[in-house]
Design a protein that fits this description.
- The complex is a heterodimer of chains A (250) and B (242).
- Chain A has 250 residues and is of the alpha/beta class.
- Chain A is globular, with a radius of gyration of 18 Å.
- Chain B has 242 residues and is mainly α.
- In chain B, helix 3 packs across helix 5, helix 6 packs antiparallel against helix 7 and helix 8 packs antiparallel against helix 9.
- The chains are: A alpha/beta (250), B mainly alpha (242).
- At the A-B interface, helix 2, strand 6, helix 3 and helix 5 of A face helix 6 and helix 7 of B.
- Bound molecules: adenosine-5'-diphosphate (ADP) and magnesium ion.
Amino acid sequence: MTGSSAPAEISVRFENISKSFGHVHVLKDVSASVPRGMTTCIIGPSGSGKSTLLRCTNLLERPERGKIFIEGNDITAPGVDIDKLRVRVGMVFQHFHLFSHLSVIENVALALQKVRKLPKDEAEARAAVQIAAIGLKGFEHRRSSDLSGGQQQRVAIARALAMEPHVMLFDEATSALDPELVKGVLAIMRDLAFAGMTMLVVTHEMRFAREVAGQVIFMDHGQIVETGAPAQMFDAPQTPRLKYFLEQVL
Amino acid sequence: MFEGLRRIGETFFDPQIIAGVMPQLLTVGLPNTLLLSVIATIIGIALGLVIATGLLATQRPVRFFCRGYVDLLRGLPHILTVYLIGQGLPLAGLSIFGKSTYAYAAFSIGLIESAYMAEIFRAGFQGVERGQVEAARTLGMTRWQAMLFVILPQGIRRVLPPLTGQFILVIKGTALVFLLGLTASQRDIFSIAQDNSINNANLSSLTAAGLLYLALTVPMTYAVAAWGRRMQRGSQRGKVAA
Ligand SMILES: Nc1ncnc2c1ncn2[C@@H]1O[C@H](COP(=O)(O)OP(=O)(O)O)[C@@H](O)[C@H]1O
Ligand SMILES: [Mg+2]
C-alpha cells in the first residue's frame, strides 16, 4: 500500500504446496508470496481450497508436499516448534470460536497467561487495552454468548492481536454475520491493514479487497489461477476463469 | 395359596429380622458402601480422564492401547474382574496395598469404573466444538494446555449428569466386594445382609439391604434425569442465542 520502491520483504512464502483429504486433491502445487506490511486477499469460488491454504499457514493442516516459509524460516521442516510459530501468526475464523466458558476479558487474556506466561493482572490489563481498541470497553465481563456476532468477531480479533502476531489470517471473518454487523468488523480489519499489519484475508467482500488489498490471489479448483494488484485483477482480469468468477459475484 | 403367601412373607419380609439388621446396615454398611463408592469413583475419574485423553490421542498405539483397556474392562463380567484383581494381585505377590482387603476392593471397582468413565469423558470432550480447540492451538497453546484450559472446563459441564448416573451404578457395584472377604467392621451393605441372612436362614435382611439401596439410588436417578433435562434446555437456549 505504501508504494515504496524497495522490493517488498516476503513475510509468508508457499512453495509448491499440495494437500489432499482422502481422494480429494484440495491444493495442487500452490506457490505464492505474501509481502510484509501488506494485505493479500484470497478470492475464489467456494470449495476452491482457500481455507485449506490459510490453515496450512499455521499448520492447522499439514501439507503433504511443498514448503512454507514464515519470515524466512521453513515451518514445514521436521522438528519445528509449532506452538512457538503459532504465536507469531494470529487467526480469525468465520465462526469466531470464542471460548464459550469464559468472559470477554478472559477470552483475550487466557493465552497471554498460559502461553506468554504473564501474571493474571498484567494479562488482563493488556486484554482490556485490546478490548477498548476494538470498541468494546464496558463489555469486559460479559459472557461471549451474550454478544452479537459482530461483537464476538471483534473480540476474536482482539484475542488474536493481544498475542502481538506478525501475520494475521482471516478466514471469511464476516461471512457468518448479519449484513448490518459486517461494516464494524471490516472497519477494524481496514484500520489494521493501514497500520501496516501483514494480513492474509480470505473474503467474499470484493469492495474490501479492492480498497485494502495490495495483492489479490484468485484460486479455483485448488490452484492459484491469477495473482495481481487489485485494480488489475478487478478491472482487467487476464483469465477466463477469473472473468467468469467476477461476473458471478459483482 | 395362602400358605404360599405366608411363606413368602416369612422368608423376605420378617419385620423382626429387618428391624434387627437395620442398625448395623445403617451404622456400618451404609458408611462403608458410600466410602467404597467414593474412593472407587475418585480412582475411576482420575484413571478415566487419562484413558479418555489416550482415546483421543493422535498416536495410534496410544489410542489402540486405551481402546483395548476400555473394551477389556467393560467386556468382562465385573464379578470376574473384582475376583481376579482383588484376589489375584496379592496371590501373584503384587501386594501393593499390603493386607488391606478394603483397598483391593476399592481398587478393583475403581479400575472397572475407569473404563466406563473414560467413555463418558471421551464423549464429553468430543462434543466440545473442534473450533474451540483450533482457536486455542492458533493462540500458541499446546495440545495439553488446550485440553486443560478449554476442553476440560467445557466438557465437565456435559459429563456431570452421566458421571452422576455412573456413580449410582458404582453404589450398586460395590456389593461385589463381598467376594474378597471383609472384616466385620469393613463390611458394606450387601455383605452385612448376606452374613445375616445365612445366620438366620432367612432372606429378610437382604430385603432390608434392597430397601436401603433403593433409598439411595432412586432419588439420585430422578435428580440426574431432572439435571440432564435442565442442562439440555440450557444448551439449546445457548445455541439459539449464538
Ligand atoms: N477436513 C476436511 N476433510 C475432508 N475434506 C475437506 C476438509 N476440509 C476441506 N475439505 C474439502 O476440500 C475442498 C476445499 O475446501 P476449502 O479449503 O474449505 O475451500 P474454500 O475455503 O475455498 O471454500 C472442499 O472440497 C472441501 O470439501
Ligand atoms: Mg472456506
